[in-house]
Design a protein that fits this description.
The protein has about 80 residues and is mostly helical. It contains four helices and no strands.
């Protein structure tokens, strides 16, 4: 949850991620929106954790969730170098 001194951007990203967390099948548009709103590597890490949790909830996770995880892991690897 966003803290009292969070920026509007931080509150926005947290709001989107909470909706994704609560929805069993989050919309692709909502996930696109949150991915377009990242400003920090911490936000990317939090979102990646969220997607990993979503994938782990199902024996057969959606291809879209797995594709997003793969893309974020590749992005994180290039930023870490």
């Amino acid at each position: 949850m966003a803290t009292a001194n969070a920026t509007a951007q931080e509150r926005y990203v947290q709001m989107l991620m909470e909706r994704i967390r609560q929805d069993r099948y989050p919309s692709l548009q909502l996930m696109d929106r949150v991915e377009g709103a990242f400003w920090t590597s911490r936000q990317v890490d939090e979102y990646l954790d969220l997607l990993l949790e979503k994938a782990d909830e199902s024996w057969y996770p959606s291809k879209q969730i797995l594709d997003r995880i793969h893309r974020l892991l590749a992005y994180a690897a290039t930023v870490a170098q």
